Amino acid sequence: MYLSALVDLVASTGFLVAVCVAMVAGFMRGFVGVGSGMLMAPVFAILFGPLETVVMIVLMEVVVTAQLLPSVHRLIEWRVIVPMGAAAAVFMPVGTWLLVTVDADLMARGIAAVVLVFVLLLMTGWRYQGQKRLGFTLGVGGLSGTLMAATSLGNPPVMLYLLSSRDSAATNRANFTGYFGITLITLITMMAVKGLIVAPAAIRAAVMLPAFAAAAWLGARYFRKATEQLYRRVALGLLLCVAVFGLVR
Asked: pTM of the full predicted structure?
């Protein structure tokens, strides 16, 4: 019975589309260090619904983060990433509250508009010359955690903050990986406590995981050959696509 249901799932057109999207997202995750959730969420939400989408993405991301961390942990700026991740964890319940009290679509469009403005600014070559001050770091983490729980758009504030610095591509990629390692653990713990990790979503995530993880490995391999300029173009291009999609969807 269960085997038959699994075969039907894998053979469905929607699931095959989801696997293809997961492979593209996995490559982006391995190359940039972030962004896979932003690519998967819009498609998965249509195919599987919002709750299962979050569960599937979080479960797959946790595994791939563990896959990527060993190769980047020495480059992570823990003095920045730990406070940012802690602030995100503290503010995730605020995002959960907003999810049920505020129009999530309107909020997502507002965030997309802000992201678009800052992406266009970064594309001009502008960089922030100062230090990553604790107040800014905590603020970005809090905003990211709120948006992560409320709209699944937790990545853009962190990407904008880190990409605006003069850090190298390798450092930015490592910081993204470290930050989402912290926040994913927090998020999956909250979801487990609330009983939100439903079996159908977990099964779909397990079936798609090999393709997602293999694509992430390939993206990480390709990153080693990439230039600083190419990395920055891909990262900002990803943010630009997310911002435009958030406005027109």
From this structure: 0.85
Task: Output the six-digit token pair for 243.
Answer: 């911002």
pLDDT at 83: 96
Quickly list DSSP for 52-93: HHHHHHHHHHHHHHHHHHHHHGGG--HHHHHHHHHHHHHHHH
Is residue 152 scored above 70 in pLDDT? Answer: no
* Distance between CA atoms of residues 235 and 230, nearest Å: 9
Size of the chain in residues: 249
The total number of structural domains that make up the chain: 1
**Measuring CA to CA, how many Å separate 59 from each of 182, 201, 225?**
14, 9, 29
Distance of CA 162 to the CA centre of its chain: 14
Determine the Cα–Cα distance for residues 57 and 155; give it in Å rounded to an integer: 13
Q: Which residues contact 227 (CB under 8 A, 6 or more apart)?
A: none
**What does the block give as tokens for 172?**
């930015």
Task: List the one residue out of 39, 8, 72, 34 whose CA is nearest residue 184.
Answer: 34
Work out the average pLDDT over 160-184.
91
Alpha helices in 124-168 (DSSP H): 134-150, 155-163
Instruction: List, for residues 126-138, the tens digit of each pLDDT value.
Output: 777 778 889 999 9
Q: Give the range of the structural domain holding residue 201, as residue numbers without chain letter.
A: 2-248
Neighbouring CB atoms inside 10 A of 202's CB total 14
